[in-house]
Amino acid sequence: MAEAHQAVAFQFTITPEGIDLQLSYQALNQIYLSGVRSWKKRVSRMRNSLIKGVFPASPSSWLFVAIGILATMYMQSDPSMGLISKIQHLHVSLSSQGQTMLSALVFSTLLWLSLILALRFCLKLLLSYHHWMFEQHGRVSNTTKVWVSLVRLFSSRKPLLYSYQTSLPHLPVPAISDTLSRYLESVRPLLTDPEFKRMTNLAGQFESNLGNRLQRYLKLKALWATNYVSDWWEEYIYLRSRGPIMVNSNYYGMDFLYVTPTPVQAARAGNTITALLLYRRKVNREELKPKPWRTPCCFNSFEKHRNTHRTLFFFSYDSFHHFRHGYFNSSWIFFSKVCFFNNKRALSCLCPPPPPPRVPWAQIRKQYFSSGVNKRSLDAIERAAFFVTLDDEEQGMKGDDPAGNLDRYAKSLLHGKCYDRWFDKSFSIVIYKNGKSGLNAEHSWADAPTVAHLWEYTLATDAFQLGYTEDGHCKGEVERSLPHPQRLSWEIPSEVQAQASSSLAVAQALADDVDCHVFPFREFGKGRIKKCRISPDAFIQISLQLAYFRDRGGFCLTYEASMTRLFREGRTETVRSCSNESCAFIRALEGRETEDQCRRLFRKASEKHQNLYRMAMTGAGIDRHLFCLYVVSKYLGVESAFLKEVLSEPWRLSTSQTPVQQMELFDLKNHPDFISLGGGFGPVADDGYGVSYIIVGEDMINFHVSSKHSCKETDSHRFGAQISRALQDIMTLLSADAKTTSSSSSSSSSSSSSSSSSSKDKKLL
Question: Catalytic site residue 443?
């Protein structure tokens, strides 16, 4: 092969005349540059490790401590209280002056390290303060003001991406009585009186008997582990799943809604890959500056996005691994190390195996892909940075049926043709024929905010930094000396082909059953909601409750994902959005109660939802605690009727908000067409809905609704219509209140002006 020949740095042949040595200076130069890059990376990693290791101090602070100690000793003072003289006796081979100098430096280093540990402990105490989340907006207590000043003081050194990791507090284990009390409160509106009494008795028996024993083991783990939830959540919720992860676990992200930067597929792929590699370099160098919260949070999952693959195993759970390089799929032909030229060089059939039940494919992997050419090709894919598919379809909001095309776009990203995505990769990029793009992400390594951060950077860099020429090709000079793509070879026996056909049938049935509906809600956005002095998330969640009640005629257990990244290695917690307060409001609204009564109940429900969200973010959630207690019970080999029933309850309404503008790389006000569609996921329950929403700018909310065609009681388009109706009905209710308040304020102002004018007239008379 030509590329293999070019890779040889030197050749020699033995002839009768002697040894003929041929050197390739180009290859030697590449070897030299590769070594330089490698050493630069090592030096950068060492530098970052040093900076993080001494944070919140700086490496240069050691010099100030050492100079201070030496200066005090020069003034005939001993700041060490005799420790320096004791250290001197350990250096008998040095002169007296040398012993004094070295002992002072050793003491300075020990003092410096002690100060770092003390500062880190103080910072951890500061970051454990979460009372600021429960204060009313605009009413900040003096304690919180002092806390903010101290946190800013620690943050003044422009920390690296992972500088705060070791200073973040550990996730606390809630008191079992508090968790059970909150759980019973959350299910009260869903149960009849006899059912609730039975559940209360089960909870009481659990607390008085088995619960406290399990709690002690869990507290022991919390003392030992960095996070008492994350490792079990990753293993038991994701990696131990034996069913297809397509639709059931993976989720997707979409392109801009109105804009396609280029119609040239290869050019869009080239810029997207470049942007992703630039993002990877920033993560490696810890140069990313995410949108700051009021307090630092955990970015542990950011380092897992690169070269990560979920590996099938025959036993009860999978694992994922980190590797290093790039992989490509075009029309089901596999290539590695793909390069794009401005002249749109075409990438001219084995396809990825469909997402099967995982045990049969684990057996096939062990038997047919553990050696030889298959292992080498599979390793090339699994060690790749990410997976790219050049799809032969066109997607986006186009044509005579833009709404229907958005639905097909979402389904394509969620499952594709079932055999043209590599669902086990950390994420797979999809570039469509018309230049539209998207991604499919595996769930075990990270949650949606991490992937949304990556995708937001990629889209912004592609559109605003890299850009395209007028004819849609990549900018820059053509480099024709780059190596050609390397096609991967496979040996596929008939047994594997038969299993692939069987798995494809299962996957196709699963994909066909998914009912996706994506729609932008343009009537209003968070700007108008905030004018009503309501949290946008609470407004949307209560609207979803109202929509579900109208769609199904009742309430259900509702899952809303909340982040716990205020804690080290924190991931998510569940907010049980269906509360007594939200149900009371919906019953009043549907029961035609007075508008004042409905508004009062709505504000009460909104405040309750905000409090539930804050509790979840600060480690006082319900479901992760109960989940971990259940895992402990399984390890101990004991059964709990209460835990078994709690964890088997179906989430018929699963919701999630996708964050946007995490990095503020461009202003939506100046570029309103560059609105992202966000992303979505499949339904969690067979008879339920999955709803993802993204609050875009001030005037739009994008919704992604999913359900299953096989369930006659669900319909994604019908539920989407109910969501739109619920949003508008609640806004109408609150707007009437705002108008009344405005008119009363205006009339009181007019009355005040009139009385003032009258009093002036009296004085004049």
Answer: yes
